[in-house]
Amino acid sequence: MKADPNTVEITLASDLRSVEAAEEITHKACEAAGLDAEDQHKVEMAVHESMINAVCHGNKFDDAKRIWFRLQVFPDRLEIRIRDQGEGFDPDSLADPLESENLLRISGRGIFLIRAFMDEFRVQKLPGIGTEVTLLKRIATRNQNLIKED
Question: What are the boundaries of each domain within the chain?
């Protein structure tokens, strides 16, 4: 079977070195996909926040638990899936970090940033497996950037 050069799939430990590894993979994929510097930064930050959540909140730094990371480059989008082995959460139940009582809180901004930086963000609880987040960033192709004149 031939490996797909547009897909990276790895299993990572539940520690902060894994955050850096996922960011490095994401950086290379963003460059290869032709994202501009601003979009590269947004995608890398979304991966950083998602990985921090998986390591800290999902797996709670448990050495026995792993994080599954999959990045796929399609002609029209970059799709990243990150799965931890935690209990899961409801992103809609999180406090709004822009409300006055939450402005000085240290945590609670990650999901807000991910939603702002990505074109799509989904959270899915996989019973008996863990929680998977999907991050999607659309890629503008040359044909989409051309203005057609009548």
Answer: 7-145
